[in-house]
Task: inverse folding
């Protein structure tokens, strides 16, 4: 499958714009754990995900991480092209959670297309709006929802993504996703285990009572 099938507004572009995009988009393949973009890197350009899974997160001055959202097949990421959006005043880090393949569009070309095409400009604005909606939802969860509910929801989401009740994930990694300390995660997971919802082993969390976790998350 080629780039045209993965770029949502391809059919609304002119022939010239399609040709410029097709000739410019470069394939990038990365291994799990690769940092694709962070605030200190050059402006990379938009990413169109062909396969794999990416994690977008921020880092506090104390070194604490929190996952903002994830990107999957057919998603487009604009926050890898901060130079296209100079009004964005915070840096994000984009990391491959799985071996991934994507197309990279040069920031310069995408900026040109935004300036000449209402279709591209509207698409970019919709993407930004959608991502900020996700971030605001996350902030609401952090501010108003108890940690046990957030953790239960996280475990269920991970299980759905990996299609298994046994999650190969450390307490440290969970803490990084949720923006808290490892000790907080460990205490809550031990409570979940005492209630029969999970079983803890080295480097893994097994969901043993999905219904209880679902009730807690709701």
Result:
């Amino acid at each position: 499958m080629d780039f045209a099938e993965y770029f949502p507004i391809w059919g609304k572009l002119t022939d010239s714009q399609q040709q410029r995009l097709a000739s410019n988009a470069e394939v990038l393949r990365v291994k799990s754990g690769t940092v694709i973009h962070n605030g200190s890197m050059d402006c990379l350009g938009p990413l169109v995900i062909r396969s794999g899974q990416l994690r977008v997160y921020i880092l506090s001055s104390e070194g604490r991480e929190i996952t903002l959202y994830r990107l999957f097949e057919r998603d487009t990421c604009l926050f890898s092209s901060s130079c296209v959006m100079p009004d964005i005043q915070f840096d994000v880090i984009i990391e491959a959670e799985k071996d991934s393949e994507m197309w990279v569009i040069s920031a310069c070309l995408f900026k040109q297309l935004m300036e000449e095409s209402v279709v591209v400009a509207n698409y970019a604005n919709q993407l930004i709006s959608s991502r900020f909606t996700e971030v605001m939802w996350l902030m609401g969860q952090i501010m108003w929802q108890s940690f046990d509910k957030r953790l239960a929801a996280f475990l269920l989401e991970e299980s759905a993504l990996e299609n298994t009740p046994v999650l190969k994930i450390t307490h440290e990694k969970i803490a990084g996703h949720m923006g808290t300390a490892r000790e907080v995660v460990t205490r809550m997971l031990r409570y979940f285990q005492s209630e029969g919802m999970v079983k803890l082993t080295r480097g893994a969390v097994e969901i043993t009572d999905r219904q209880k976790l679902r009730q807690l998350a709701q």
